[in-house]
Amino acid sequence: MNSKQKIYSGKTKDLYALPSGNVLLVFKDDVTGTDGVVDPGANTVIGQVEGKGRKSLAMTDYFFQRLHAANIPTHLVALDLDAATMEVRRAEPLGKDIDGVGGLEFVCRTRPWGSFMRRYQRYIENPERSLDHLVEITIKDDERGDPLINDDTIVALDLVSSAHLEQAKDITRRVCQLVEKDLKDKELILIDMKIELGLVDGQVVVIDEVSADAMRVMDKDGEVLDHEAFYKKLIG
């Protein structure tokens, strides 16, 4: 590991450049939250849970296999569950800033929750109403709380072409629908999730991870599952 060049250190993963040109993602045991409460949607690391990184990778492996079966492309090359590492093709994240960092996150919502409810609660008569896989786009910017950005602004600022943006939103909905159906078969309910997308050889693909670190899920009794509980329900 020390012979590889670290190119990025994030909240839940470190990235290393490989001689092949690919990138190695190392999943960490760090957890995010607010005021000491674990929340996958938060931007602050509040501690560590032993084995959490490996379990996040196992969930990503689980969902990536299903995405590939549905002809939804990802940047995955290979993974090592024991080492909690995933080798991926180098991707160009959608929507990087003028310094070449950051990017966009694509959020898919099945029902009002979290920041969506806080923004629009005066307009939501039924908090259990369906949002029919609504896609919102945010800027990866922890300091500003990952602000929302709309389609017109993205295109006007040349962050993403209109064609790639439509492809990205379509893939986001397809991923959300696939995950929702898979969880429903396990008597679990997907509340919302976020994914990242990038360009590999000019093609829009799912990048990073699809795990409990990037979604909210509740059981049939309405209890939101933490990372460990979700892992046990999904992987066993």
From TrEMBL:
Organism of origin: Oligella ureolytica
Top-level class of the enzyme under EC nomenclature: ligase
One term of GO molecular function: ATP binding
Catalyses which reaction(s): 5-amino-1-(5-phospho-D-ribosyl)imidazole-4-carboxylate + L-aspartate + ATP = (2S)-2-[5-amino-1-(5-phospho-beta-D-ribosyl)imidazole-4-carboxamido]succinate + ADP + phosphate + 2 H(+)
Gene this protein is translated from: purC_2
Database matches in InterPro entries: SAICAR_synt/ADE2_N, SAICAR_synthetase
Pathway: Purine metabolism; IMP biosynthesis via de novo pathway; 5-amino-1-(5-phospho-D-ribosyl)imidazole-4-carboxamide from 5-amino-1-(5-phospho-D-ribosyl)imidazole-4-carboxylate: step 1/2
Keywords of the record: ATP-binding, Ligase, Nucleotide-binding, Purine biosynthesis
Protein name, entry field: phosphoribosylaminoimidazolesuccinocarboxamide synthase
PANTHER family, per the entry: MULTIFUNCTIONAL PROTEIN ADE2, SI:DKEY-6E2.2
The UniProt record lists the keyword Heme: no
Domain SAICAR synthetase/ADE2 N-terminal stretches: 6-227
EC number: 6.3.2.6
GO biological process: 'de novo' IMP biosynthetic process
